[in-house]
Amino acid sequence: MGESILEHNRYQREYYDSTNKRTLRRGRSPYIDRHLDRLIDAASLERAQTILEIGCGQGRYTLPLVDRGFKLAALDLSPVLLERLRTAAGPRDVCLVAADIAHLPQHLMKRFDRVIGFFALHHMHDLDLVFRGVASALKPGGILALLEPVAKNPLYYLQIMLTPKMTWRGERGLLKMRTPIVHAALRRQGFVDCRTERFGLFPPAIVNTRIGRYLEDGLQYRRYIRIANAFQIFSAKLPA
Questions:
Q1: Sheet of 231-237: strands edge to edge?
Q2: pLDDT for res 26
Q3: Model confidence pLDDT, tens digit, residues 115-129
Q4: Number of domains in the chain
C-alpha cells in the first residue's frame, strides 16, 4: 500500500525539523533575488494584494518578499519551522499559519488574491488535494504561482544522492513536477490559463558570483541550452 497523507506529512515535518538544512538558510543573495523576480512577474504580484505563501519553511523567500514591501500570510505544516521564521522575522509583520493547505482553515477561505510557493509543491502528498485547497484560499480571478525544480534535470538527482541528510523519500515528489501532470491536476480543480515557464541554469555557488550571473544571463535563453533549465514556475488562475 502507498504512504498515507498522515504518514507523508509526519515524515516531511521530521525531515525538515531535524535537519536545519544549510540550503534553506535565510539571507538575501543574487540567487534568491532571481527566483523572487521571476515569480513576482509570473504571479503579477503587487504590494496591495493579499498573498498566501504555502510551504514557507524557515522563511528563505518569505522575509525577502516582506523586505520588498509585500504583505504575506505564511503557511507551513511545521510549527518548528514557523517558530524559527518568527524568531528571524523580528519586528517584521508576517502572519504565520501552522496548517496543511490541503485542509485549509475556514477563516482563510476566499481571502487571497495570490497563492505562491517556492520549492514546496514537490514535498506535498496529493496534487489534487493541494490545488483544491489553493482554490478554496483564492478569491475569484486569483492567481497561483509555484516555483519548482525541473523534473528532467539530472543535477537534482545527483544532489539528492550526494547531499547529507537529503533522502529520496523526502524528495521523490520531484518526479511529479512535469507540465502534463501538474496542469492536469490544476484543471481538475477548476484552474484555467495554466502555464509553465522555465529558466535558470546554475546552483547558488555559481549564480552568487558575478561571472556566474554573466554566464547564466548569456546562455539561458539560447535554444540549445533550454533543455538544461533548472527551474520552472507553474502558474494558473481561477475564473473571475
A1: 95-98, 72-76, 51-54, 112-118, 138-149, 231-237, 192-199
A2: 55
A3: 999 999 999 989 999
A4: 1
- Identify the domain containing residue 166 by its residue range: 5-200+228-237
| Residue 215 CB contacts under 8 Å (≥ 6 apart), including other chains | 201, 202, 206
| Burial class of residue 166 in the structure, from the number of CB atoms within 10 Å of its CB (0-12 exposed, 13-18 middle, 19+ buried) | middle
The answer to whether the CB of 85 falls within 8 A of the CB of 61 is no
**CA distance to 118, 126, 167, per residue, from 14 (Å):** 19, 19, 12
Q: Is residue 216 part of a domain?
A: no
CATH code of the domain containing 176? 3.40.50.150
Q: What is the CA angle 167-171-177, rounded to 5? A: 160
Residue 75 lies in a domain: yes
Single-letter code of the amino acid located at 109: M
In a domain, 61, yes or no: yes
* pTM recorded for the entire structure: 0.88
Residue 96 within a domain: yes
